[in-house]
Structure formats: structure tokens, C-alpha cells
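Cont'd.
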Amino acid sequence: MTRRPVTSVDVARLAGVSQSAVSRAFSPEASISPAMRARVLEAAATLNYRPSRIPAIMLSGRSLMIGVIVGGLSNPFYASALEQVAVSLQASGFQVLLVHVDDALTLDAALNQLASYRVDAVITALAIGTRDTAEALSALNIPAICFNSRFVGRNISTITSNNRQSGAMAAKIMRECGVRFPVWLAGPARNAASRERRHGFFDALTDHALIDHALIDHALTSDTPSPHPILELQGNDTYESGFNAMRDLLDRNFRPDGLFCSNDLMACGAMDALRDHGGLACPKDVIVIGYDNIPQGAWHAYDLTTFDQRTEKLVDAAMDILNDAFRPGAKALSRKIVVAAALVVRRSTAKAPPQVR
Amino acid sequence: MTRRPVTSVDVARLAGVSQSAVSRAFSPEASISPAMRARVLEAAATLNYRPSRIPAIMLSGRSLMIGVIVGGLSNPFYASALEQVAVSLQASGFQVLLVHVDDALTLDAALNQLASYRVDAVITALAIGTRDTAEALSALNIPAICFNSRFVGRNISTITSNNRQSGAMAAKIMRECGVRFPVWLAGPARNAASRERRHGFFDALTDHALIDHALIDHALTSDTPSPHPILELQGNDTYESGFNAMRDLLDRNFRPDGLFCSNDLMACGAMDALRDHGGLACPKDVIVIGYDNIPQGAWHAYDLTTFDQRTEKLVDAAMDILNDAFRPGAKALSRKIVVAAALVVRRSTAKAPPQVR
DNA sequence: GATGATGTTGCATAGCTATGCAAAAACCGG
DNA sequence: CCGGTTTTTGCATAGCTATGCAACATCATC
């Protein structure tokens, strides 16, 4: 086994032709006679030769690699999103250079790596919140696409779900179900999407003033941080945080009858706490709404009403941006795209409205 | 915005030094004076220059990229495995070139892509069963590492969980719980790991002859494929397949009291069917054992006893293989490593043995 | 100050493929 | 068979960085 990989010159020598001929044999559009191509391909097969894209990267300035930055693949939503991104990129002839990131520190190093491998663009599903990271992204001077991030900047495009309207929709469901003690289970504070969902939810609920403020205020103990009439719990997007937050609430003898969670993982955790810790039945005693439409939400143990972000549409939008960005003569673009989420109604909100409309 | 990326020559010109100096400024071991380095780095910062690894790939013959082939990220086990592989590879200074594969057809194309990008090695968690794919992998002439695949070949190393012993361990638990009507819920037939688990489970159960054959035989209808005294259900590693298989069994009025599933997703599905469709309580009426230790198995709705494959050990083993393979003067290696799975006992098997020992 | 040792810098080149251009070949019509 | 047209082939080169080597500078030592 020779360590050096087979080169086009090796093939050319074996076939008794020039190196250019070998190159052309592997290029479908090239001008080459069928006889020549056959001869070359035969020699190539003998040596098990495959043309390298590395020199082509230098010449063309296009690596056809897209840097994909991920974090938290333990959330099935992100795992699935990554899968769809990978499939779409491959279908468009791109390669995926994957980078996993834990914190902002790693991100900087990751961006350096991606830059040195000359990726043509970057796609990330991280909640890029800080100005620093956005600027670092901009400085790469290549198209960047962020999912569910609010940040805009030169060369940065964002694709988000219509989080605010979805929040309002959740509020509408609460009203229709006659919810009197609504609870909002928030994701991490730095998550822009979570903040938007909260915004829409709170605004729509308080606007319509269908909440029994007095009762809720009464239920709030002094150390509750939220100044709103809707009870707010703090989570961090994991099942455990949802379970714990709800368990603590139940321990304080608060019995919600409506719960909107910033994502499905927390919703599942909260539902388990409601059932096992509070003895509350869903949807009879409490209705629950999540976000993301992860497969687990459809499992019979949960049967969770949720919002589907339509990842396929998000990903399609990303592909459109890439195509536009690479069109010859294209300028740096920073587009902002919002895709409407689709409400998926399941049993967790199947409560007959107790009051006549 | 100039389309052409900044080059080391640009930096050299601005700093008034040679191109070599720029290169050395970015190479920690290089012989260069602090003054020179500072000057270069300043110019580089001005131009936002980062050295490209592309020419270095050509010169060194090492891309430091590892091709990672995945499929079925909707299984949290694989998503998590990918995450850990990515983290470890990055920590070792490698990049991850990710390829998603649906079927064998795509795999061939994927291998060609990886080869043309000159990845230094390939890691895959696919169940590579056919001889063709293994040969294609071998033909790449680079180290290949397969998780949970039985195939061996030149340059192919395999890392598997000790599936057979785990199966035997599951049988032991069944015996201790006094199970009389055991059921095996299999993964796809082409999944080598699933076959091994079945093997260990069946052997250990029949060896000890603690199963009430007559009763089980009676329960088997004529069209049941399995010739064994243990009832065998066919799944495809998804929640739905587990749910459906169990529901169909219950519809035929069979009431199992012990269930071993080839993976946790199917176990969760089967548990939901047992509860909602058969009215059976776990662990009182039926005990359930899964495989993989996905987070969902720990959720309160399931609380599933399962086998943890110790992904961190599998991944460490993979890193060891890579390091050895890249050691100067190393020969092609095809190692076979087996890592013992760790039994995680939870409530789904918490049944007091009814019979005195 | 001469000598040698050590440290620093620049020059030149390798690495592999795609492609513009020119040369050669093939083909075609008369 | 010949000039012209089209097709095919080979030559030469670009693309960017790391590094061996030589040249040069610096420094210490006697």
C-alpha cells in the first residue's frame, strides 16, 4: 500500500495520454472523443483513481463546502433540522463541513476553522445573540444564514418561524378552552425565538383580558419574578428543566389549567410532572401547547398540540439564499425571511370550551 | 467587496515582508522574531486574513478532514453519537465532513464525494451489511471505522457493543422476574447488532428452559414466522413500528409479561401500546427492556431499563484507531473492538420475583 | 576584531487539476 | 487532392501556502 494517493498523472502514464486528457475524461462537458474517454476511464479504474477536488478549490475559489454549525443535537428538533439541511445541501451539490459548538468561545475557534477551509457559506441554528458573534460571522465575508436568530448584519440572513403570531395563536387556544391560570414556560433568556413567542403570547392574552388577574395575582408568591398576570417559569429547553420547573410550581400548590412551552422537550417534561407530581390530567385539568413538533410530542404518552416550524420550508429558503448569493455578480445579501408555523392540534388541547360563546 | 479572498501575499505586501514571513507568523513552531510576527499579525488583522488550509492539503497529503456518514438522525441515539464523534474529532484537530445517506445507492455517491475531498478517514454508524459496500469502503484506501457493523475488511475496523452478552443479560432479568411469555421485538433484518442481541437473548432463555413452552406454543398462531418458543415481532427501529407491532399482538389477544426490544425507540412505542391498547401496566403486568439508553427512556412516562452502549467509550476507541492509523509508518489496520454495554436499571423491570429461589 | 554559533529572513519550489490556447488530426465538400 | 471547418489532443500555467536551503544579521567568545 503506497501512502501517496493515485494522481491524474499516474493514470495518464498508464493510459499513454496526457494529463489533460484524464481531467477531461472526468468532466462531462469537456471536448473529448469517446474512445479516449473509455481508455482513460479504464486506466483510472485499474488504479482506482478519483479526481481530487482540492486543486480545483484553489483554481475556482469555490470549495462547494458549506459550514454547518450546530449545538444541542440532543434536541430532536435540531437533529432533524441538521438532517434536512444536509440532505438539501448534498442534493444541490454541496458538502457539509460540520462544526459542533458548546459556547461562544468554541464558536470563535470554529469560525476560524471554517474560514481556513474556505467554506463557501455558513449555516447555523444556534441562537446567535451577541453582537460579537454576529460581527465575527460578518467578518468571514461569506454568506451566513441563521435560523431563529434575530441578528442582522452584512452578509447575514435570518430565517425564523413567525414566533410572535404563534404565541398569539397559543393565547387564542387558551381563551377558547377557558383557561384561567395560564403559565408560560420559557426557554433560556438568550434565545431570541423564545422571547418572541412569549411576547406574542403575553400580548394576546392581556389584550383580551380573559385572564382572571385577581386569582393569578393571588397565586403568585412574593418571590415570583414575573411582573405579568401570567405565570412565567424559567427553563432551558430541556426535558428536565420543564419537569423541574413544573414540579416546583406544583409544590407551591399552584394548579395551572393552561401551559404554553417554548419547546416540546420542556412540554413533555412539564406534562410528566403534571401527571406524576400534580395528579393533573391533560387535557381535562390542564391543556398544554408546545413548539417544534418533535416526534416525541406525537407519542401516545403525550399527544401534544404544538407548532410545526416547517423545517422543509426553512431549509428551502436557505437554499434559495445560497443560490442567489452564488449567482455571478451577486452582492452581499442580508435577507430576513419569516415562515409561518403550522399549528398541529392533538389531544393535549382537546378540551371542550366550558363557556358558551 | 472583492470576491477574491485575501491571500498571504497581500498581507506580505502590506507589511513589507516576504510571503514566507506571513506563513511563519501563523505557524507557532516557526523560527521568527517576535517583532516580525507582531508586524505580520497586525497587517493580517487589518486585512482580516486567515491562512488557507487548501494548499497545505496538497502539500502534506493530509486534509485533517474525517468523513462521517450518518443516517437516521431521528433516532436520538445516533444524533447523540454524531455529536460525540464531532466533539472528539474537533478536539483532536480534525474537521467533520458530514454525509447523510438514505440507501446503498446514495452511499456509493457519498463515498465518491468523500474520496474527492481527500478525507483522511471515514467513520460510519450505518449498518453496513452488504459485501459491496464494505468493498467500496476498502477501496477508498483510507482507514474506515464502522460502528455496530459486523463487516471486516482491509482498512475497516469495527467497534461494537457486546450485543450478545447484553441479550443474555436481558434473558437473565426475564428469568429473575419470572417471565413466562417473553417477546423479542427485532430491528430491521439487515441490522447486524439487532441479530446479535436476539441471538444472545434466545440462547440464554432456551438454554435455561425457564420458559413455559407449551403455553407459548399455544399462543402462537399458524402464521407466526418464528420457530422459537419466544415470540418474535418485527420492527424497523422506529417508535411507530414498536407501537404497531405490539398493538397487533395485543389485538390477537396475546398478553406478554416480558418484552425485550432491539432499541429504545421501539420500546417506547411498545410501552405506549401495552398501556393504551392492552391496558397492561409496566412493570406490574409486563416488564420491558430496551437498548441504547436514549434520553427519552429516562422520561417519567417510560422509565425504561435499557443498555447503555457507552458511546464515549466507543468514540474513544475510534479516536485510538485513528491515531494509530495516522502514526507514521503505520500499516493498514482492521481492528475489531467490543465495548461492554452497561445495564441501566429503571422502573420498567422493577418487578419482585414472584417465585422463591 | 575575527570566528563561529545562533537566530532570522527571503528565495524558490512542490503539490495536483482544470482550462485557455495552439497544434494536430479528422472530416467534408468540391 | 486541397482548403476550410470542426473536433480532438497536448502544452503550459494558475492557484496559495509551507518549507528546505542559502543568505544574511546578530551575538558571544576569546
